[in-house]
Amino acid sequence: HMAFSQYIIKNNIFAEKMRDVDPSIVLVASGASPYEIGTTARWIPHRPIAYGSRFDWTGGLLKNSSDYFNYVAEHIYPLPGKIFNEKQQKFVKIDAPLVNRVRRPANRVEGAAEAWQKYMKEMPWLKNSGKRIALDEWVARARGLQGVLGVGEVLNEIFRHTDIFIMAAHTSAPLCLSYNGTESEYRGLGLVFKLYSEHFGEIPVAVSGDRPQRPLQGTIGVDKPEHTSGSDTYPVDVMAALSKDHKTLTIAVVNPTEKVQQLHFSVVGGEISDNAIKWIITGPDIKARNEAGKKPEITLNKSTITHFKNTVSIEPISLYLYRINLEN
User: Fold this and answer.
1) In angstroms, rounded to a whole number, what is the distance separating the alpha carbons of residues 24 and 149?
2) Residue 63: what are its φ and ψ, rounded to 5°?
3) In 3-state terms, what secondary structure has residue 165?
4) Mean per-residue pLDDT over the chain, rounded
5) Is residue 259 classed exposed, middle or buried when 0-12, 13-18 and 19+ CB atoms within 10 A define those classes?
6) For the residues 3-23, what does the mean pLDDT come to?
7) What radius of gyration, in Å, describes the C-alpha atoms of the chain?
8) What pLDDT score was predicted for residue 111?
9) Residues 6+ apart with CB under 8 A from 298
10) CA 133 – CA 292 distance, rounded (Å)
11) Residue 265 near residue 240, CB atoms below 8 Å
12) Residue 328: predicted pLDDT
C-alpha cells in the first residue's frame, strides 16, 4: 500500500520521464473509484466511501494529476454469493436467485460508470478531456454456464457506456481454453468472446423497453449502483449494435432464467430483412462446463432464419446473438 499523497508524486514523475522518451505514449494511471475501493480494500474504516474523500483514489487523481495520464484504471472483482451489509460493515452471504447472481458483475460495471458520471458533474472539464476508464481487469467470478451469462451481461453493459470505457480486458485470458497437455477445448467463457469478437457490431444502438431490471440487494456505493444495470427488458438483457457500414444490425440477448422468455422488438429508423443468422450458447443446466478431453456441455450453435419475425423465443439459461441485414 502507498498513501495517495505519495502515489501522485510517483505517478507524475513516472509520467514525465516516460514522455521524455516517447511523447506519444498512452499512460493509464492506477485508479480506483469508491465502488472498487469499497469492495476490494479491507483497511477502509467505513463504507460506502464519500466522493472527494482521501479514499476516493480516482477522484484524487483527476484533481491532482490530470496532466500526467490519459486514462484511469478500474478493476471489477465482485464477491460471489455475498452482499455488503452497511450496518455490520462487512460482506455477508446471501442466497440469491439465478437472475440476480448473473447480474451482479454487470452491476459493478454500472457502478463504475455512475462514479465517472459523478466526476463529470463535479468537474465539467472532464467531459471533453478525452479521459476515460480503462477497465483493465474484470471477471464475472462464476463457473460454467452461469459465468457465460454473467460475462454476456458484462459485455452488454460495457457497450452501453462506450462514452466512458475506452477499453476492457478480462483477467486471465487463458481461462478461455481448457487444456490438458495434448488436447484443448473452448470453455464457455471462450465461446462468449469468440462470438462477440467475430460477430457483434461496432456502433452501439440504444435499447429501450417497458420492464426495468429489478434492484439487487446490497449497499449503494459499495456493491450496488444507484440504477440497476441492464436493459428495460426484465428478466432478459438486450444490447444491440450496428456494423461499421450501417448495413447490419446485431442483437445480443441473455436469458438468465430457467424458463423460455418471449421477446418482441421493433426497430426505429430502419427496416430489417426477413433473413437473419442466429447463434446460441447454452447447455443442459447452469452448472454445465467444458473440459479438454471430454464432450463439451456448453455449445455454440449457428443457424439461418429465412422468415425472421419481431417476436422470438429465448431458450432458458442461454445467450443469443442475432445478425440481421438492414433494408436500404
Assistant:
1) 38
2) -85, -25
3) strand
4) 94
5) exposed
6) 94
7) 21
8) 96
9) 144, 145, 148, 187, 188, 191, 281, 282, 283, 288, 289, 290
10) 36
11) no
12) 66
